[in-house]
Amino acid sequence: QVRLVESGGGLVQSGGSLRLSCKVSGVIFSSDEMGWFRQAPGKEREFVAGIRWGTETTRYADSVKGRFTISRDNLTVLLQMNSLKPDDTAVYYCNRLGTLYWGQGTQVTVSS
Questions:
Q1: What is residue 84's three-state secondary structure?
Q2: Which of 15, 42, 49, 104 is placed for a possible disulfide with 70 were both Cys, Cβ 3.0 to 4.6 Å?
Q3: pLDDT tens digit sequence for 15-42
C-alpha cells in the first residue's frame, strides 16, 4: 500500500515558479520510479518527469526539459517548475509509475 499526497500548486504569472511536493508513505523499492503527470482540461493525462527511487536517475518530457527539475528529499518527491507558461496549466498528479497509486492532484494555473 502506497499513499501519495501532493501540495504546492497555485496561481502564478507567466515566467514565474512553483514547487510541488509529493509526500510518499508506504512500501517503495529502490527500483521503483516515481513521477509527475499532468492533465489539462479536455486533454489526456501526460507524463511530465520521473525519478528512479534508488539511483535518483531522472527523465523529462520534452515540453518541460530545462525548465522543470524533479528531485527526492527523503520521502518527498519534489518538482521545481521555473519559467512557467500558460500551457503548463493543469492538475498535477504524483504517481508510482506502473501502478494505480496516484495522489489527489494539485492545481497549477499560469496566467498570461
A1: coil
A2: 49
A3: 999 999 999 999 899 999 999 999 999 9
